[in-house]
Amino acid sequence: MPATLMLMLHNSHNHPSGDPEPSGADARITEELQQALALVDIRLLDHFVIGEGRPVSFAERGLLPQLQPRLFG
Q1: Most buried pick, 3, 63, 72, 73, via CB within 10 A?
Q2: How would you write the pLDDT of the chain (73 residues) with one tens digit per residue?
Q3: Domain boundaries, the chain
Q4: pTM for the whole structure
C-alpha cells in the first residue's frame, strides 16, 4: 500500500504601515504561492497579514482561492 503524506502550510507577514488590510500584491503572491505549492501537493491553508497587532486572515475573508486537490499516480 503506498504511503501518503499530507502537508499543509500557512503564510504570514506584517505591514509596517500598521494597516492589516491585504493589498493587491498580497493577493497576487498568495495565489502564486498557492499554485506553486499545488504542483507538489502542498495545500496553503491561510495567509495572515499583521498590522497594529490585528491579524487579517485570507481564509476567514474568503480570499483564499480553492484549488482542486491533485493526487499523484
Answers
A1: 63
A2: 454 555 666 778 888 889 999 999 999 988 998 889 888 888 888 888 988 878 899 999 999 877 655 555 4
A3: 25-44+54-66
A4: 0.73
